[in-house]
Amino acid sequence: MISVKNLCKQFGDFMAVDNLSFEVRPGDIVGFLGPNGAGKSTTMKMLTGFLAPTRGEIRIFDQDMSQSAKHIQRQLGYLPEGAPAYGDMTPLQFLDFIANVRGLRGQQKRQRLNDVVDMVEIRSMLDRPIENLSKGFKRRVGLAQAILHDPQILILDEPTDGLDPNQKHQVRELIQNLSKDKLVIISTHILEEVTAVCNRAMIIAGGRMLFDATPDDLQRRSRYYRAVSLHFTQMTDISGLAELPGVDDMEVEKNSGRVVLFPEHQQDLMPVVSAYIKDRGLQVDSLYQEQGRLDDVFRQMTAEVRE
Amino acid sequence: MVGTLFRREFASYFATPVAYVFILIFLMLSGVFSFFIGNFYERGQADLLPFFNFHPWLYLFLVPAMAMRSWSEERKSGTIELLMTLPVTIWQVMLGKFLAAWAVLGLALVLTFPLWVTVNYLGNPDNGIILAAYIGSWLMAGAFLAIGICMSALTKSQVVAFILAVVVCFLFVLSGSSIVLDSFKGWMSPMLLDTLASFSFLTHFESMAKGVLALNDVGYFLIAIGIWLYAGFLAVEQKKAE
Which residues does the UniProt record annotate as the domain ABC transporter (chain A) (predicted)? Predict the structure, then answer.
C-alpha cells in the first residue's frame, strides 16, 4: 500500500506540490491527470524516492521513504518522463544491465528478459543502439525496464506519449493484463486513457488534489453525462423537445446542427425522447445517449485553479 | 553491484569511442613527448624518465576530456532519474564510474609497453623503478580523474565540466612548478611555500617518477581521490534533480 500524507514540494518560492494526501491499495490502477506543470511528475519523482519532499510523508508497504528508499525501490518499477535510457547501449545490453542491478540471475534472468521483450514487442530492435530507435521503441524499452523484475508497484510517467494508436492500445492492454494485486500509477494527459485503463482517477492542478474517484464518477460530473444527442434528417421544429418532462436545457451545435438535450438530475431521457419522435413521426438519422465528456470536466476543474 | 555498474561504464567508454580516441592520442603524444622533446635517445640513459615527466601535462587535458561526460551526460539525458530510482546508492555509482574510467587509464598505460621493451632492449634499466613510476603515474591519473568527475557532477554541460576540470587540475599541477614557487619565494615564508608545494601533483609525482613509492606520496593521491569523489557525491546529491 502507498500512503501519502501532506506531501509538499517547493522549488524556490514555487509550490510544485501542495499538501497532497492519498492512499493507493493493491488492485488500484490510478490515472494521474492534470495540465502540464500541475505537479504530476514531481509527485512521481517523490513517490519513487528520486526527490525528497519538502514536507510530508510517503510510506510504501509500511516503510518510510525517507529512511528505507533503497529497500522500497526494489519492489518498484518506474518509467521516468521521456523514458530515458543509455543511448550507446542496445536494448538487450540495457535490459541486461537493469536485470543485473535488480538482482536477477541465471535462468530466471533469461526467462524474464525473454518474456518482457515479447510483452513490449521489441525483439526486432534488440541489437540496435537505443539512440537510433524511434520514439515509440524507446518508450517500449523504458516500459520493459520498468516491468522487468515484475514489481509490486508500477509508476509510469506518460507511458503512451509518442506512441501511435496501435502501440497505445498495446501498452494499455499490457497494463491491464498485469496481475490484479499490483499498484499502478499512470500519469497522462490523454483522458480516454483513464477510462480505458484505470479504475481510479486523480486530477491535480497547481499541485493540489482536485478530484479522486472512479473514472465513472468523473464522467458523471460532466454536463453531458446521460445527455441525449440527436440529429434530424430534415429541418424540423424542435421547440417541443425542450418542453419534454425531465429536460433541463437544450443546445444546438452550430456547425453540425446536432441537438443535445441535458437531463435534470441525470435522469434517463431516452424513453421520453424516443416516444416524442415516434409520436410526431420525425426523421432522425442518429440518436444516442452521451457518456459524459471528460475533456469538458477536466477543463472546468482545472480552470478554477488557474484563476 | 559496483561490478555491474563498472561493467556498464567500462563498456560505454568503448561503445562511444572515447576510450579508443583517448588511448590512441595518449600513446601518440606520450611517444612524441618522450622521443622529440624528452630526448629519449640523446640522453643515453636506459630509463623512462623523459616519458613519465610529461604525464602530468598529458593528463591535464586528456583526463578531464574523459571524465567530463560521467555525470553531465547522466543529468542531461535524464538517465540519472532512472539510475537513482534503482536500488543502487550514489556511492556505488560513483565508484563504478571512477573505477571504469581509471581502468581505461590503466589500459592506456599498459599499452605503452613497447617503450618499456625498447629500453630493455637498448640497455639494462631498473625495472623496479619503472614499475613504481607506472604505479605512480596511474595514481596521479586517478587524482586528475576524481577532479574531473567532481566537476562533471556540478554541471549538465560537458564543455563547462571540461573547462572547470582543466582549470582545477592546472592549479594542482602548477602549485608545485618552479614558476609559481619562484614568484612566491620573495615574500612567502618557507613553511607556507612548502605547504603550497605539497598540494601539487608535480611534487608528489616527481619522486614517484624516479621510482620512489613513498607512503606519503601514495597516501596523498589516494586521499585526493577520496576527497574529490566525496565532493562529487555531495554535488550529485544536491543537484541531481535540477
Answer: 2-231
Residues 78-117 of B with CB under 8 A from A: 78-79, 81-82, 84-89
Cβ pair A145:B82 closer than 8 A: yes
ipTM for this model: 0.87
pLDDT in tens, B93-143: 999 999 999 999 999 999 999 888 888 888 888 888 888 889 999 999 999
Q: Which regions of chain A does DSSP assign to beta strands (E)?
A: 2-11, 14-24, 29-33, 55-60, 63-64, 76-79, 153-157, 183-188, 200-205, 208-213, 228-232, 247-252, 259-263, 284-289
CB contacts, 8 Å: A100 with chain B? 4
A142-156, A268-282, B136-150: range with lowest mean pLDDT: A268-282
C-alpha cell at A133: 530507435
Q: Which domain range does residue A271 map to? A: 228-290
Minimal CA separation from A104 to chain B, in Å: 12
Contact criterion met (CB below 8 Å) for A227 and A289: yes
Report the residue of B6, B73, B82 to disrupt the A interface, i.e. the one with the largest count of A CBs within 10 Å.
B82
Distance CA(A198)–CA(A186), nearest Å, equals 8
Are A123 and A167 in the same domain? yes
- Number of residues assigned to chain A: 307
- Could you tell me if B124 lies within 8 Å of chain A, comparing CB atoms? no
Give contacts of A154 with chain B, Cβ < 8 Å. Answer: none
Which chain B residue lies closest to A131 (C-alpha atoms)? B77
CA gap B158, B166 in Å, rounded = 12
pTM of the model: 0.87
Residue keyed to cell 490510478 = A30
Can you name the residues that pair with A24 across neighbouring β-strands? A2
pLDDT tens digits along A269-293:
888 888 888 888 888 888 888 888 8
Pair A81, A193 in one domain: yes
Total of domains in chain A? 2
Q: Distance between CA B26 and CA B60 in Å, rounded?
A: 12
CATH of residue A276: 3.30.70
**A285 and A183 in a common domain:** no
Q: Which of B4, B77, B241 sits opposite A100 (nearest CB)?
A: B4
pLDDT of residue A280: 83
d(CA A225, CA A292): 4
A83 shares its domain with A203:
yes
- Closest to B84 (Cβ–Cβ): which among A50, A85, A103? A50
* Contact list, B8 vs chain A (CB under 8 Å): 86, 89, 97
Domain range summary for chain B, segments of one domain joined by +: 2-239
> Is position A304 within any domain?
no
